[in-house]
TrEMBL record:
This is TIGR01777 family protein. It comes from Dyadobacter psychrophilus. It comes from the Bacteria. It holds the Pfam family DUF1731. Transmembrane segments: none annotated.
């Protein structure tokens, strides 16, 4: 795949940065679509403005693969009505602009891989084991993911092989859930959230980025995949394993759900909801091999 061009939206985010490193190591040419014209080593940056319907000339030309990671952070701010609109539009309107430009320029990349969310099945699905064939829910985050994937399907309608990676909690030492949970745990203040019994479907960031690359390189990959490790864990178990990895005690009681709702409002569902995904298509239909399929091994690598 040496010399193949990969164009990424949201490339400066948590997943994009690590994915870029792995792509460059494999000899890919990497380019970003960015709202600001910045200088990034080894990456060609093209400017785009979704509100103005603008993508800089040369961005889409000679592109072999497209990866869509752009989207406002779901857990970054309280869910005001304005924030909810931004969470949706930042995922869908970006894809719609890319589709429009692909049609105008008659460009057809080999594959389009879009980020998606485990919340497709609902913010709180209890103990239900959700495979890729499980139906969506009707709460806010499920709606976000459904319209997000619908926008990706519009790319597929152009005859471009399209993959959607429904991602759970990404384990990384750079950002996301683990640094937030590890910070108090380092001082002996680690505590489960809510009941602690809610399921968390997780994946090590390196395995997730390797899935993106596998989705680019393997023509058999098509449609939605639950991009998570094979064994979801409870919030209580994740907290416990973080404390073990840090060699710190866990002695505080659970943080009550009402307190989290007071602080985060509706957004509390992100940490209180239960999500058990089954990576059925990954395990049965692909040859993908995990490097970190056990939580203790993943946390040891991240928190060492």
């Amino acid at each position: 795949m040496k010399g193949k061009k990969v164009l990424i939206t949201g490339g400066t985010g948590l997943i994009g940065k690590r994915l870029t490193q792995l792509l460059l190591e494999k000899g890919y040419e990497v380019a970003y679509l960015s709202r600001k014209k910045t200088s990034i080593p080894a990456v060609q940056v093209f400017e785009w403005n979704v509100d103005k319907g603008y993508i800089e000339e040369g961005a889409l030309e000679n592109t072999d693969y497209l990866i869509h990671l752009a989207g406002a952070g779901v857990a970054d701010e309280r869910w005001t009505e304005e924030r909810k609109k931004l969470i949706i539009s930042s995922r869908t309107e970006t894809i719609e602009l890319i589709r429009k430009k692909l049609v105008e320029k008659n460009i057809r990349p080999t594959a389009f891989v879009s980020s998606s969310g485990s919340s497709y099945y609902g913010e709180d699905t209890g103990n239900v084991r959700n495979t890729e064939n499980s139906p969506p829910n009707n709460d806010f985050l499920s709606h976000v993911t459904v319209v997000w994937e619908k926008a990706a399907d519009d790319i597929a309608a152009l005859g471009i092989r399209t993959v959607k990676l429904r991602t759970g909690i990404v384990l990384s030492n750079e950002a996301g859930a683990i640094p937030r949970m590890a910070a108090p745990a380092k001082f002996g203040f680690g505590a489960p959230l809510g009941s602690g019994k809610q399921w968390i479907s997780w994946i090590h960031i390196d395995d997730l980025c390797r899935m993106y690359i596998a989705a680019l390189e393997n023509e058999s990959w098509d449609g939605p995949y639950n991009a998570i490790a094979s064994q979801p864990v409870t919030n209580e178990e994740l907290t416990k394993q973080i404390c073990i990895a840090l060699n710190r005690p866990q002695w505080l009681p659970n943080v009550p759900a009402f307190a989290l709702k007071m602080v985060f409002g509706e957004m509390a569902s992100v940490v209180l909801g239960s999500s058990y995904l089954v990576n059925e298509r990954i395990t049965k239909e692909t040859s993908f091999q995990y490097h970190f399929n056990e939580l203790d091994k993943a946390l040891k690598d991240i928190l060492a």
